Amino acid sequence: MSLRNDRPQGLGRGLAALIPQRSPTSTGSIEVPLARIRENPRQPRLRMNDEALATLAESIRQHGVIQPILVTETIDGYQLVAGERRVRAARIVGLERIPAIVRQLADRQQLELALVENLQREDLDPIEAARAYRQLIDEFAFSQDDLATRVGRARSTVANTLRLLELHQGVQDAVASGLITEGHARAIAGLPSDGQGRVVGMVVDEGLSVRQTEELVRRIREPREPKAAAAPAPADPDVERVEEDLRRSLGTKVRLTRTRRGGRIVIDYYGDDELARIYQRLVGGNA
Fold first, then answer.
1. What is the DSSP letter of 73?
2. What percent of the chain has pLDDT over 70?
């Protein structure tokens, strides 16, 4: 005797039975309503260029959205993983739907994919990339080697980018806004934090190159000792005696300077009358 199972299909199997499931390996795109897409809370990019966004919106107006965005499905819609600029531009144009690839992704995968996409498009400034690297390391236990492999960067590049987060906040802000480059920042990193804030202002105000910044930091770190003044040569008693005899004879200040091949006698006078008197003393005639 067989027993019939009269329980409604799907009950007791959790949300998976209520939400249509797609193969995680599916690569086809579907049209999803823009109104049902929520922003990615793990989006590594914090700044967006308004001019570039307007240009993309015009392109979408003319040609549509060529490359699908990437989303993951939620209970009440979709959460954006990659393609924030395309979503914003599509909303500016007034589209109601956008092509999307739907994948079921863990939080770590969402951050990783958003980071990789932005790095490939060079949409992240160095500070945004550094913060995303740090988040993957702190929240998901990535090693620097794992991270370098996942994002297609050399391990030294990842390490150098992470070091930007150790800089004075003023230096980080200057890098993020494009006022200075990573090369400038690495040069400034050679100073203590309190000195970094002062130097970055000088670099920006004077428009210093990376090499000039490196030289400025070197001078600050290794100030040259002022050269000691040369000690005066000891007085020659014979020279002093001759000078004194000439002073008494001529009635004015006389300096005698000796050189390797002779020397000079400098006689001071203060007015034409004194010059005439000295002249008479020396040659015995009239000036």
1. E
2. 75
